Amino acid sequence: MAVSTSPEALGRMAQNIRSFIEMQNQLITSLKRDYDSVGAEWNDPKYREFGAKLTSTTTSIQRTEPELQELIAKLMELQRKLEDYLSTSV
Length: 90
Description:
This protein is mainly alpha-helical. 82% of the residues lie in helices and 0% in strands. The protein has helices at residues 7-38, 45-62, 65-88. The two termini are 13 Å apart.
């Protein structure tokens, strides 16, 4: 069996996905905080309409997290299997 990747590359990809999730959550929190702050000066039906759209959008983004976590688990499993394979094929 030819292996064209490394366990380290799989681990880096998993870490990048973790970082992506974390940054996504931090940005969503920041957007919500900014929205609340803007509401101190702009609180009319358009503000609430914008808030509903913001909430809908951020909720959609957050729904991807379970799938991303699943990808991390799969990458970690592949990394483990590749490490096992490489340690026995040397």
